[in-house]
């Protein structure tokens, strides 16, 4: 896995390679770049998917701060360091907020944006727990099966298990639980100013079974930012994992239209 130094820390990232059009894919909280592996396969060879482990996640270095400005600056740093501009952006959840904020604040770096199942408001009243309390989660497991059984309680076990690795005879999480609490808190808020300021083509993907983005907020996002394309897929929050074919079909159609404009 390649490594790059940005902002006095080391970031690991996945790179599907090839000569296709570069796509920067940003994962959500508790994730890592490998979550987009299947998407990279399905988008090849037309697109080259670059998927970093965001700060505090995966094999990238931890340590705060974990505010919106820092995540946006990291994404901008990737685009500039790898000379990807203007890049196509994919962002899921936490990464989706980062994607549209980068497009709003540094539009010269961005060609188009795909936002996966996250809103302009991330602490909406209908979401009972916008911040998942993980302070009592185990930080390691005696066996991998123990980790499998623990994460079976989540709606996306495979997603969480990607961040469980064997070290010194135990299976450890690739993130610090206190840091992930800070990551989540830093992502909660109302980001309408950034959303409406995005000057680039924008596709909003919503999961019909989403616990984070209601149909009402999605409709309001389209109304407040005319030109936003909205596609709803019949699955849960992790669209790129639960319906990769539907995800890629929507993304391909959107990006094909962008490339001809």
Automatic annotation (TrEMBL):
Any one GO molecular function term: catalytic activity
InterPro entries the UniProt entry points to: AB_hydrolase_1, AB_hydrolase_fold, Carboxylesterase_BioH, Epox_hydrolase-like
Domain AB hydrolase-1, chain residue ranges per copy: 23-250
Pfam families per the UniProt record, alphabetical: Abhydrolase_6 (PF12697)
PANTHER family, per the entry: HYDROLASE ALPHA/BETA FOLD FAMILY (PTHR43194), PEROXISOMAL MEMBRANE PROTEIN LPX1 (PTHR43194:SF2)
Name this protein carries in UniProt: Pimeloyl-ACP methyl ester carboxylesterase
Species in which this protein is naturally found: Kribbella amoyensis
Phylogenetic lineage: Bacteria, Bacillati, Actinomycetota, Actinomycetes, Propionibacteriales
């Amino acid at each position: 896995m390649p490594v790059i130094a940005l902002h006095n820390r080391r970031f690991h990232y996945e790179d599907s390679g090839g000569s296709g059009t570069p796509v920067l894919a940003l994962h959500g909280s508790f994730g890592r770049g490998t979550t987009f592996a299947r998407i990279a396969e399905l988008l090849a060879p037309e697109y080259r998917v670059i998927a970093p482990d965001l700060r505090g996640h995966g094999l990238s270095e931890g340590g705060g701060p974990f505010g919106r400005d820092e995540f946006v600056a990291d994404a901008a740093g990737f685009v500039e360091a790898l000379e990807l501009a203007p890049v196509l952006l994919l962002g899921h959840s936490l990464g989706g907020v980062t994607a549209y904020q980068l497009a709003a604040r540094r539009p010269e770096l961005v060609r188009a944006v795909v936002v996966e199942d996250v809103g302009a408001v991330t602490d909406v009243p209908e979401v009972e727990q916008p911040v998942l309390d993980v302070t009592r989660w185990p930080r390691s497991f005696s066996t991998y099966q123990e980790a499998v059984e623990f994460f079976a309680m989540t709606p996306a076990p495979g997603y969480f298990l990607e961040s469980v690795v064997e070290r010194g005879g135990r299976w450890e999480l690739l993130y610090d639980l206190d840091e992930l609490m800070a990551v989540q808190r830093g992502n909660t808020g109302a980001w309408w100013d950034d959303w409406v300021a995005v000057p680039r083509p924008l596709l909003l993907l919503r999961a019909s079974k989403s616990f984070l983005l209601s149909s009402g907020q999605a409709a309001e996002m389209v109304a407040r930012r005319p030109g936003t394309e909205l596609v709803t897929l019949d699955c849960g929050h992790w669209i790129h994992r639960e319906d990769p074919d539907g995800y890629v079909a929507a993304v391909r159609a959107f990006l094909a239209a962008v490339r001809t404009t």
